[in-house]
Amino acid sequence: MTPFKYSTAHVKGTLSARHVVVVRAAYPADGRPATVQLLPLAAATARLPARAHLLAYPGPLLRGVTHKKSVIEYCSSRAAEAAAGGGAGGAADPLGRLLVWELLALLLRQNGVVVGTDIAELLMNNAREHEYAHAPSPRIGSRAGSGAEGERVVSPESNARPDLPLAPSAGEEGAEGEEGAEGEGAERAAATEAEALARLRDYLIYGNRQEALEWAMRCGLWGHALQLAAHGERRTRAAVAARFLAAVPAADPLHTLYAALAARMPPAATCAAEERWGDWRPHAAILLANSGARPDLERRALTQLVVTR
User: Fold this and answer.
1) In what order do the strands lie in the sheet with 19-23?
2) pLDDT of amino acid 212
3) pLDDT value at residue 241
């Protein structure tokens, strides 16, 4: 026989919206009715740290009774409190708590229907408004500091007077001028590529894959374009491969090889006799050294290349 859960009278308490209901232990069968006490929830939670949050909570949440706007405002207030570094969790992971409350508010606004781009936009807005600071390990920092102090090396230049700069020779000045011009050009190209990559990254972060693919092809980021197209539809892969082939100069032997591998007749096979195409031998050599899936096309291209040279 299963024993009773409670073998004697016991106290029972329940938590309602604004009160704590307590039923004292008694035996009504013996003429001792149970005493019911209603304790205000504010008095019962007076010493709790989260009392203000509990009182501000717009519960109980009932369909058709609780307004969605009040719950969203509550989530927004908790998110603002987390952003300020307050709350019950103190300073422990404030950005994580902020994201949780913002996600709850987003779910309420969109009736629980969100897609990946919505959450991505939420994350990026959070990244722009709140800088991520990775705290280094104190043990690593102490080691680095002790190593830097213990490995101090006095260089010969340290004996020189700091107020007297070293005067370069005339040859060094000319070399420095050329290196400076080359360095400026390289920095400008690197900055342009970095800007293009940053915009490509922004497109992909917000889910604009087609715009990102088009931007990569326009900026010559063919590695990223081909990687994106490799995981797309067959038509997309063919279009990107065709545009990449068109970007390679037609007189380049690489264009000849890529066209043959794509089962197309290389332009050099019919125009090699013209001077602007240069030497025909690299085109023939690259076809002979790299056989593809269409050997008949390659033989025909080689035949035309030799005939029209």
Assistant:
1) 12-15, 19-23, 36-40
2) 93
3) 92
State the pLDDT at residue 244.
Answer: 93
Print the SS3 string covering 8-41: CCCCEEEECCCEEEEECCCCHHHCCCCCEEEEEH
Q: What span, in angstroms and rounded, lies between the C-alpha atoms of 177 and 186? A: 14
The strand pairing partners of 21, in sequence order, are 14, 38
Of the candidates 79, 76, 113, the one whose C-alpha atom is nearest the C-alpha of residue 99 is 79
The C-alpha angle 42, 45, 47, rounded to 5 degrees, equals 120
pLDDT for 2 equals 72
Do residues 44 and 81 lie in contact, with contact meaning Cβ atoms separated by under 8 Å? Answer: no
Q: What is the pLDDT of residue 273?
A: 59
Read off the amino acid at residue 271.
C
What is the C-alpha separation between 273 and 278, in angstroms, rounded? 8
Residues 209, 215: Cα–Cα separation, whole Å? 10
Q: How many CA atoms lie within 13 A of 153 on its CB side?
A: 5
* Alpha-helix runs per DSSP H in 113-152: 116-129, 138-150
Pair of tokens at residue 216: 């990569």
Going by C-alpha positions, the residue among 60, 122, 55, 52 that lies closest to residue 87 is 52
Contact yes or no for 87/97 (Cβ under 8 A): yes
Q: How much is the pLDDT for 136?
A: 54
Give CA 43 to chain center in angstroms.
47
Question: What residues of the chain score a pLDDT lower than 50?
Answer: 89, 138, 140-170, 172-173, 175
By the 8 A CB rule, do 34 and 28 touch?
Answer: yes
The Cα angle at residue 242 between residues 238 and 243, in degrees rounded to 5 = 120
| In the chain, % of residues over pLDDT 70 | 75
The model carries a pTM of 0.57
Question: Which residue shows structure tokens 């065709």?
Answer: 242
Q: What is the pLDDT of residue 309?
A: 62
